[in-house]
């Protein structure tokens, strides 16, 4: 399906393979989903509200069980997948730094004791992510005093600091102004390229999505249609 020229390394194993998956809760929302996600992909998921885009993301993340078929993950379930929910999932009373460090913690062994904070060799990831997203000067401020766009940068920094192989983002460009979109997308793209990872983003701004994605998945009539591959 995707005949873009890829290097041997990227060609090896898909990061995720959905095998004839039915996505939904009690009733199927999207059926016969049979797709692979390769390293380097930036995939935009488009479709009207309520059609099942968020549920598809949650199914890929392993948060919702497929009604049939199965999801084959080629990445570590812990730390390998970074999920940026539509409602950001930040702790508003904690500082920007603490929130971003939570992303770093996700990539640590689950046995790493919380009272030790973040190990030295990992501390740089949080700092670097905050600098890349232009929020380092806000590091000690509680998240609740930041604007919507700044909070979105914090959520992005948290995910970038986790260094996941797969980023799943739910309408996260939505309320950003143009400058923010540039910074956020540049940083995310850089993270994806340097770590040879991939991203699936649900986006209702079609124009924006088409600019940043190399693949478009449109959800239509309970099916996933691949519209663009480049
Ligand atoms: N936890 C849930 N249990 C049952 N139905 C749900 C749940 N979450 C969402 N839905 C329903 O699934 C449908 C698709 O929702 P969603 O995936 O959020 O759509 P989209 O992201 O495309 O707007 C909606 O009708 C919604 O009400
Ligand atoms: Mg949604």
Task: Describe this protein's structure.
With 230 residues, the chain is an alpha/beta fold. It has 2 domains: 1-75 and 165-230, P-loop containing nucleotide triphosphate hydrolases (Rossmann fold); 86-162, no CATH class. Helices cover 33% and strands 25% of the residues. It is built from 7 helices and 9 strands, in the order H-E-E-E-H-E-E-H-H-H-E-H-E-H-E-E. The protein has helices spanning 8-11, 53-60, 96-106, 120-132, 148-162, 178-194, 206-212; strands at 16-24, 28-37, 42-46, 68-73, 81-84, 166-170, 198-202, 215-220, 223-229. The strands form 2 sheets. A 6-stranded mixed beta sheet has the order 5-6-7-3-8-9, with helices on both faces. The chain has a 3-stranded antiparallel beta sheet with strand order 2-1-4, covered by helices on one side. The longest helix is centred in the C-terminal third of the chain and has 17 residues, at 178-194. The radius of gyration is 17 Å and the shape is globular. Mean pLDDT is 87; it is low at 1-10. The structure holds adenosine-5'-diphosphate (ADP) and magnesium ion (MG). Adenosine-5'-diphosphate (ADP) binds at residues 25, 29, 49-55.
């Amino acid at each position: 399906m995707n005949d873009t020229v890829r290097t041997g390394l990227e060609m090896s194993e898909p990061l995720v393979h959905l095998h004839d998956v039915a996505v939904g809760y009690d009733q199927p929302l999207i059926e016969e989903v049979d797709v692979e996600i390769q390293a380097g992909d930036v995939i935009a998921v488009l479709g009207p509200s309520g059609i099942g885009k968020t549920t598809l993301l949650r199914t890929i993340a392993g948060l919702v069980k497929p009604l049939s078929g199965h999801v084959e993950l080629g990445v570590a379930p812990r730390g390998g997948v970074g999920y940026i929910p539509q409602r950001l999932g930040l702790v508003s009373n904690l500082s920007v730094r603490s929130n971003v460090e939570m992303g770093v913690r996700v990539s640590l062994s689950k046995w790493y004791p919380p009272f030790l904070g973040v190990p030295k060799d990992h501390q740089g990831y949080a700092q670097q992510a905050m600098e890349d997203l232009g929020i380092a000067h806000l590091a000690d401020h509680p998240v609740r005093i930041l604007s919507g766009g700044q909070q979105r940068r914090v959520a992005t920094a948290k995910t970038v600091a986790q260094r996941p192989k797969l980023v799943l983002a739910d309408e996260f460009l939505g309320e950003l102004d143009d400058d923010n979109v540039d910074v956020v997308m540049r940083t995310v793209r850089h993270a994806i390229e340097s770590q040879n990872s991939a991203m699936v983003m649900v986006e209702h701004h079609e124009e924006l999505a088409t600019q940043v994605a190399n693949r478009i998945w449109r959800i239509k009539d309970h099916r996933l249609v691949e519209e663009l591959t480049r």
